[in-house]
Each structure stands twice: as structure tokens, then as C-alpha cells.
Design goal:
Elements: H1 3-14, H2 20-23, E1 24-32, E2 35-37, H3 41-54, E3 55-68, E4 71-82, E5 86-88, E6 91-93, E7 99-111, E8 114-122, H4 124-130
Parallel strand pairs: 1-8
Antiparallel strand pairs: 1-2, 3-4, 4-7, 5-6, 7-8
Length: 134
């Protein structure tokens, strides 16, 4: 699997598509906007479920993907419709019913051909607030 294919497959997991065991390590770690989340595939599954509950038609598109050594650097766009209560970094944001699009950066660390860590940064919360979420 090429680095881009691995990245696309990993982002698919956030949409509930694919097999996490095939592309992630059991002890995968997460840092989102500088905040550490509990390690493990269970956290990834929880994130995917939360996204599905909060955002109709959520999707991610990889614009750029560069690999060097064990790191894959990704510039991506996320989009969807905010139809359910979003739980982001300890905040509950009621649905706005509006479509959104945001951009982000992600760095994936690969070990033995699988994603072992995700370090992502995005202005997601600001986008939801601009769309009318309080």
C-alpha cells in the first residue's frame, strides 16, 4: 500500500469504512489540535461514531500527501452537514443544520505498514461557530 493509499484508507475509517485492524496499530495514539486522546482503536471507533451522529455526509478529501521516513504529511478538506450535537474537545455544540467545509493538516506516523499515531490540526470548531453553532 502506498503512503497515499494508507492515508486515504485511514481517513475512510473516520467515515466508518474499512477495517481498523488492517491499517492501524492496536496502541495507536492521537493528538488533535494539541490535545492528547486516549490511545487505542477504541478511541478511533468512538470518533467515527461521534462524527456519524453529528455530521450527515461527513467526508474528507486529501489534497496533498507527502511521505518521508515513517511520517506521512497530509493537507486535507473536511465537509458535511452539521445535523447532530457535536462533542469536540469537551464542548457540546448543538446542530446548526448547515453545511460546512474546513481544512486541516495531519501527520501520520507509520510502524510496520500501519498507522501508529495521528497528530492533526484543523480550525473545525471555528467553522462550526461561523455557521451558527453557539
Amino acid at each position: 500500500m502506498t503512503p497515499r493509499e494508507l492515508a486515504e484508507t485511514y481517513f475512510g475509517l473516520l467515515q466508518g469504512v474499512g477495517n481498523a485492524e488492517a491499517v492501524t496499530t492496536e496502541d495507536i495514539t492521537f493528538r488533535l489540535n494539541g490535545n492528547d486522546l486516549p490511545p487505542g482503536r477504541g478511541t478511533l471507533a468512538m470518533r467515527a461514531a461521534s462524527l456519524a451522529e453529528s455530521f450527515t455526509d461527513a467526508a474528507w478529501t486529501i489534497d496533498d500527501c507527502i511521505a518521508e521516513g515513517s511520517t506521512i504529511a497530509i493537507r486535507y478538506r473536511g465537509s458535511g452537514t452539521h445535523t447532530g450535537t457535536a462533542r469536540i474537545l469537551g464542548q457540546e455544540i448543538p446542530p446548526s443544520g448547515k453545511p460546512f467545509e474546513y481544512r486541516g493538516l495531519a501527520f501520520l506516523t507509520v510502524r510496520d505498514g500501519r498507522v501508529a499515531a495521528e497528530d492533526s490540526m484543523a480550525n473545525f470548531l471555528d467553522v462550526l461557530r461561523r455557521n451558527g453553532a453557539s
